[in-house]
Amino acid sequence: MKKLSILRKNLALSITARGLSNLITFISMIYLIRYLGQVQYGRFAVALAFVNFFAFLMGPGFRTIMLRDLGKDRELLPTLMGNMLALRLLLALVTFFVMAGITTIMHFERNITILIYILFVWLFFTNLSVQFRSLFYVYQDLKIESAFMIFEAGIKALWIGICILKKMSLVTFTVGFTLIPLILLLFSSSISFLKYNIKRLKINLSDWPALLSTGLVIGLVGLVSSLHLRVDIVMLSKLTGSDSLVGLYSAAFKLIEAPLFVYAIFSSVILPEFARYLVSDKAWVRKESIYFTKIFALLFLPTALLLAYFSKPLILFVYGKNFAETHHYFRVLLPSLIFMYFNTLTGTILYASGKQKAVLKNSVYSLLLNIGTNFIFIPMWGAYGAAFTTILSEAFLFYLNFLHTREALQPST
Predict the structure, then answer these.
(1) If I label 252, which of 56, 274, 283, 304 is the partner at 20 to 30 A Cα–Cα?
(2) In this model, does residue 41 exceed pLDDT 90?
(3) How far, CA to CA in Å, does 145 sit from each of 1, 50, 258?
(4) Which residues lie closer than 8 Å to 72 by C-beta, 6 or more apart?
(5) What is the pLDDT of residues 42-75, one digit of tens each?
(6) Rounded distance between C-alpha atoms, residue 204 and residue 351, angstroms
(7) What is the pLDDT at residue 396?
(8) 334-368 pLDDT, tens per residue?
(9) pLDDT at position 1, please?
(10) For residue 213, what are the CA distances in angstroms to 65, 67, 208, 220?
């Protein structure tokens, strides 16, 4: 019972901290956008989006592997951490040359090119910081991670405030922005070396092929999932040719995406513990899964009903009267959050069971269904068709994941 209590308290703490940090970041970003203006912020946004595209190459799936494998056996920490840090350094070098080549081919304007190279350093420090901060989830030290979330949002807000008061240039802001994950890296690595057993890191080259292949599969799942969330908007644009309709639907989907950070934290918190107990006590995993689903239903259903009922004033408050029609699409999309929760839960159980290939296969099938049905329903129903295919494909993914999850949770004979 103590283990159950700790897990549930950590989950509540993490979600609260992430919600607070997101609020701080959201408010500070509004001031940043107003300060930089359309042109300057547009350059920063393009450079940041372009650099983030290459995050996939710099240690794909390594965080999930750490959470799972160390959840099962913490004695693996010195070797697993040593291997992953070495691989991240090597992959960063490869990624840099790939990014530099593509940057040259795309002929970005000089200002954006400078930002791209600065933000590559930001991406490098961020990946290393995430590597060490993953240990807070493994050891269920979520008070430390929660402090890091709020600290990160706080120093970003502070730096934005300083830049506005001192009227600093975009390049100066970006350099400071890049140093924030370096600060987080120094703190997280120091805590990890002092608190956990990683004073003597080990590197085993024979482990690298398995790490890379498993990480690639998990990384591809993330890539497919990202495509899954974006393909409706792209196809709606191509099949209707209406920028106005795409804008209305995109605004609705943006609100649907807002609570997904809760699902991401939920997965990170439960993955190490589920991986550990799937080996010794599958009944515990089933019990916790049912408990979390009951809590989700208790919180989500009344909230969804209220959001559906008050969707129009909500949309008018958030976006203004030009987006009044968005509330229709928002209402239709709300049920997709139910299946997204179940896909997070079942996907986490499958990762904990080492069935990442099943997750990838199921995600690809769901994406193909989404694309195929979009060709049918978008011409018929427009944005309503895009919303329907989102719900349909998420439900289909849950069905596929559930079949594998039921097998993974069968009692050992």
Answers:
(1) 56
(2) no
(3) 23, 28, 21
(4) 275, 276, 279
(5) 888 888 888 888 888 888 889 999 999 998 888 8
(6) 23
(7) 97
(8) 999 999 999 999 999 999 999 999 999 999 999 99
(9) 47
(10) 11, 17, 8, 11
**Token pair belonging to 192:** 């990890």
Residues, the chain: 413
